[in-house]
Design a protein that fits this description.
By secondary structure, the chain is an alpha+beta fold. The chain has one domain. Helix content is about 40%, strand content about 15%. The protein contains six helices and five strands; from the N terminus they run ααββααβααββ. The strands form two sheets. A three-stranded antiparallel β-sheet has the order 3-4-5, with no helix packed on it. It has a two-stranded antiparallel ribbon with strand order 1-2. The protein is globular. The chain starts with a helix and ends with a strand.
Length: about 220
């Protein structure tokens, strides 16, 4: 289940501590916490979680310190980046990288302008978040009613739309208070996953039980 409490807390702490040294660090942080507290924890109505193929840290990469990239250490793949915010290497590849690049482009566009660009830059982020969920597979183990046994497939069919999410993100990041930014951002992404729908396919009531699709609505 989405950990909205921790997401809001971490974002507020990050913003108030002024840890970021540049826009790229902030983009990496936001992409990472979204993935950790929303992407990896969201469940369909039956309680199935998303199937994620995250990178796994290898001890061959060296110790998890800033010195891990020293010449005498085996360097980690580009998908891994040292985070001064968490004090460890963070996986930023795959869908996380898509989010990171979107946040970075959004913030970069706005930072180059003397006037507020409005909602368009935030549509870049919301579109990336929608892409993050497009075609996402969930475990089919827990049957969605009226399913009666573990299924064979469970896929997102509608990943939400970027328009309202982009508007909500614009409102969040244009708040002047770190607490409001964190709470509005959290509400925006939680509201969005609530609009995602999918289809679970598995045994339904009958004799013999037919394998049939069952639609579900909203991640939690």
């Amino acid at each position: 289940m989405v950990n909205d409490v921790q997401l809001e807390k971490d974002i507020k702490n990050y913003l108030t501590s002024l840890k970021a040294q540049n826009l790229s660090q902030t983009a990496t942080f936001l992409a990472t916490v979204y993935h950790e507290y929303v992407g990896k924890l969201a469940m369909d109505p039956a309680g199935n979680i998303a199937i994620r193929t995250d990178g796994v840290w290898s001890n061959d990469f060296g110790s998890q310190t800033k010195e891990a990239r020293a010449a005498d250490e085996v360097k980690p793949p580009d998908e891994w980046q040292w985070s001064p915010d968490t004090g460890r290497w963070e996986f930023t590849g795959g869908k996380v990288k898509i989010l990171k690049n979107a946040f970075e482009k959004c913030f970069g566009m706005q930072s180059k302008m003397k006037t507020n660009m409005g909602k368009p830059p935030y549509l870049i982020v919301s579109t990336a978040i929608v892409a993050y969920w497009t075609g996402q597979a969930f475990t089919p183990i827990i049957p969605n009613p009226p399913g009666i046994a573990p299924g064979v497939s469970n896929l997102v069919t509608f990943p939400g739309t970027p328009v309202k999410l982009g508007s909500d993100l614009y409102d969040a990041f244009n708040s002047k208070d770190a607490g409001k930014v964190a709470s509005k951002f959290t509400k925006a992404v939680v509201d969005h996953v609530g609009t995602i729908t999918g289809i679970w396919i598995g045994p339904n009531p009958g004799s013999p039980p037919p394998i049939a699709p069952v639609t579900w609505s909203g991640l939690m």
